[in-house]
């Protein structure tokens, strides 16, 4: 298994991947109904880039990213992490240790009984049990400072003590505290107001440039239905519709010269 991706090698790659769900139906006398959630999708994600996966609800974008991050197995096709197949257990373990996830609703992903310090420290406890407590504490403080939260103020607070915007910042801090190779932001702006949305955009830019300035290449995948948002942060766009990748390219190219009617519809509906 390769430890690092070369500059020309994708950190993640999906080759002709399909996901099919079969459900038994009594009405069909024991026969199975088949739903294709993803069909022959191919994706590459490179170090130090931001890829936006965009499409309407039910388009297949969440299925695609879950398979890409090793959270859901594909029915057919292959997924690679740093050149090695995710079908190997050791590779899946390595990917999970190298990934950070920001959920759509950060409030539901925090244990209300834990302080913010403990919640942000959790990835370090799981992935670095050999680290000294002082090292973990320093990493948590650095994560909070990276999202503009003062550790002296927020370490001992509980989720109920934070506003929506502060919770979103804390969720970002937890996702990046372990310096992940891959950061997945799953619809991080769908349920927040415009000022907080602008804050999240700025935060994604800051975290990405900060990682790059430290010599740490972090690939970011953002799942969204809004091209008006991703135009500000994405290097490339992948458009998913009815379980298929219908278009991909640089953000500037997709916005200026969309090649399919579905993408044109998304652009027309966005606040660009």
Compact overview of the structure:
The protein is α/β, with parallel strands linked by helices and 272 residues long. The protein has helices spanning 61-68, 89-97, 116-127, 133-146, 151-154, 164-176, 194-213, 227-230, 251-256, 261-269; strands at residues 12-24, 32-45, 50-54, 76-81, 84-85, 99-102, 182-186, 219-224, 236-241, 244-250.
Structure overview:
By secondary structure, this protein is α/β, with parallel strands linked by helices. The chain has one domain (47-73, 85-269): Rossmann fold, CATH 3.40.50. It contains 10 helices and 10 strands. A 6-stranded mixed beta sheet has the order 6-7-8-3-9-10, with helices on both faces. A 4-stranded antiparallel beta sheet has the order 2-1-4-5. A hairpin with a 7-residue loop joins β1 and β2. It is globular, with a radius of gyration of 19 Å.
């Amino acid at each position: 298994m390769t430890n690092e991706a070369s500059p020309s090698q994708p950190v993640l790659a999906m080759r002709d991947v399909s996901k099919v769900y079969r459900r038994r139906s009594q009405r069909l006398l024991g026969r199975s109904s088949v739903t294709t959630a993803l069909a022959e999708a191919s994706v590459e994600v490179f170090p130090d880039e931001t890829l936006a996966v965009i499409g309407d609800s039910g388009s297949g974008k969440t299925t695609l990213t879950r398979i890409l991050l090793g959270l859901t197995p594909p029915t057919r096709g292959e997924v690679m992490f740093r050149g090695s197949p995710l079908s190997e257990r050791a590779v899946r373990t390595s990917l999970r240790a190298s990934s950070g996830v920001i959920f759509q609703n950060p409030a539901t992903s925090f244990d209300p009984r834990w302080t913010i310090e403990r919640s942000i420290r959790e990835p370090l406890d799981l992935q670095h049990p050999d680290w000294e407590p002082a090292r973990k504490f320093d990493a948590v403080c650095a994560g909070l400072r990276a999202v503009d939260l003062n550790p002296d103020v927020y370490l001992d607070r509980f989720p109920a003590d934070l506003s929506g915007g502060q919770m979103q910042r804390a969720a970002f801090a937890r996702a990046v505290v372990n310096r992940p190779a891959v950061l997945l932001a799953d619809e991080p702006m769908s349920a927040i107001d415009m000022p907080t949305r602008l804050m999240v955009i700025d935060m994604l830019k800051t975290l990405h440039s900060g990682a790059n300035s430290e010599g740490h290449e972090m690939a970011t995948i953002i799942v969204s239905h809004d091209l008006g948002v991703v135009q500000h942060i994405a290097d490339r766009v992948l458009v998913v519709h009815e379980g298929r990748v219908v278009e991909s390219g640089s953000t500037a190219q997709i916005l200026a010269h969309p090649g399919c009617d579905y993408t044109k519809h998304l652009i027309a509906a966005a606040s660009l």
